[in-house]
Amino acid sequence: MKLTNDGGRDGHRCFLDLPPLKESKRLAAAYGCDLSIPNDAGIGNILMYTRIVDDLARKFGRPLTILTAPLNPPSGPVEGCPYPLLENNPFAGKIVDANAIDSKIIVSINREKDNLCQFNHMIENIAYHYDLRPRFLRPSIYLTEAEQTWAIHQLRGHPRPIICLHPHGTSSPLPGHPWYDENWKKLMLKLQGRATFLEVFKPDIESKNLRTVKIQSNLRQMMALVWASDLFIGFDSSMAHVATAFQLPALVIWEPYRKLEIEELWQHGFAPAALSRWSYPQNRNIILLGDRDNTVVQLIQSWAEDTIRLL
User: Fold this and answer.
1) Domain of 78?
2) 50 and 179 in a common domain
3) Does residue 154 share a domain with residue 300?
4) Same domain, residue pair 265 and 165
5) d(Cα 50, Cα 91) in Å, to the nearest integer?
6) For 252, which of 45, 133, 174, 290 is 20 to 30 Å away at the CA?
7) 119/196 same-domain check
8) Per-residue DSSP letters for the chain?
9) Cis ω for the linkage preceding 161 (within 30 of 0)
């Protein structure tokens, strides 16, 4: 099978003839940078590079100069700052806007983001090509004191503990599936009176009829709300990566059929490795497979109650 990368969604997209990250490294060096970071993948994908920023900067003994472009995920431009995932990061020094030089540069960098060995977690896959062993298997996000204060202020008056829910995400179940909204309602009923349910969501994109606390927020504010919560329950999504970055007790739900549909569009064979590439062993990971008699609802309820007791 000839593997190509012509921009199509044909399952033959990701692996290139070039060695992994060769062009990204060349472009970084050509413009006086230490590291190239893509800008057009899902937010969770880009968060994988935040660990590399920290660890590579520690290796060099100085903040990095980074070649990238304003974040532009599939859901559209992010409100607020152009580099929200690197904002306030002491290891990220100068950021060079590739688009201000030549729009073709970031296209080449984006093209290589999956052209990697796929044997380990994505953080490890990227780190390998920079001769790094990640210090931690989690993304690295830095909030300002003002952002933290804002989030705490928003949640004032809501009884603790606060369970941050993210019943959304690209690979989350579609309408008609029990875990689209029905089972979330069952879970919340079982935990009623034990916690406050805060739902984080993308305005105008993610909306479900759940009786949760909803606070309008941009990406940085949404991350701050996750930080200010006590535990996290949600689908495999960018917010699950954020919760992991902040070391919240996190339970992540995986829908294998949706992962199959999505992953196989980009590269045949990616779907079976989705859990090992994207999940974190420190989290409780539950796969929606063979769920009968509300078993998964009961598992999540038990995990939440046990976690609350330890807070």
Assistant:
1) 22-128
2) no
3) yes
4) yes
5) 9
6) 133
7) no
8) -----SS--SSB-S--SSPTTHHHHHHHHHTT-SEE--SSS-HHHHHHHHHHHHHHHHHHTSPEEEEE-----TT-PPSS-S-TTTTT-TTEEEEEEHHHH-HHHHHHHHHTTT-S--SS-HHHHHHHTTT---SSSS------HHHHHHHHHHTTTSPSSEEEEE---TTSPPTTSTTTTHHHHHHHHHTTTT-EEEEP--TTT------SEE----HHHHHHHHHHSSEEEEESSHHHHHHHHTT--EEEEE-HHHHHHHHHHHBTT-GGGHHHHH--TTSEEEE-SS--TTHHHHHHHHHHHHHHHH-
9) yes
Same domain for 122 and 153: no
Please tell me whether residues 240 and 276 are part of one structural domain.
yes
* Final residue before a domain boundary, out of 66, 95, 128: 128
Boundary-marking domain end, from 98, 128, 158:
128
Q: Residues 252, 124: one domain?
A: no
Residue at 260 is within a domain: yes
What is the pTM assigned to this prediction? Answer: 0.95
Kindly state whether residue 277 falls inside one of the protein's structural domains: yes
- What total of structural domains would you count in the chain? 2
Residue for token pair 């999505």: 262
